Amino acid sequence: MLTEHHCHILPNIDDGSKSVEMSLEMIGLIKSQGVGEIFATPHFYAHREKSVSSYLKKRQSAFESLVQADASAADIRLGAEVAIEHGISQLEDIHKLSMADTGYILLEFPYAPFSHWMLNEITDIAYGFGLKPIIAHVHRCLAYCKKAEIEEILRLDAVFQINNEAFGSFRERRFVKALIKEGHPYLFGSDAHNLSGRKPNWDLLMKKARPQVIEGAVNIL
User: Does residue 221 form part of some domain?
Assistant: First the structure.
């Protein structure tokens, strides 16, 4: 069974789905592409939120609006894509942003040049709260990190999430294949935000990746 580990399908909470109707269409498309389990992971930016609890209330409200429109949406599991910021590891209830209480947390590097404070925040979250980091779309680090810095990221005790889109890029596909060959644990996700430029794209993964590569990511969580 395929699992969607990273998508922005909850309505009106971040830069993803803009309505319940769009959310249901996105969910339908994801499922039509062979996905059986979905984690919804709306963005969490600490500097934009009043608190973790207020964010969780917004997330729950968005989730309940989906379930009211279609009861089958109750099977969706809730998580968050947590932006790595200065001091993020000091949030007392950051563990509540884990992937449906699995003990894993999805963390996104900032779109900025690499700095070691980012690794420090990740390890502080891991050891301070007993959480296993999942590094969101790790292949995007190619645009911001030098080779040695990427090697430092890959030495983290973490799972590496790969966007399906990486298999449509020669450079990113080569990086992902090397990551998998080296034995790093990995997950896939569409990182879908809408039904146009960033729509669910599991069909791309199924077309471009070998079955054994896809199967290797299914049962991590």
Answer: no
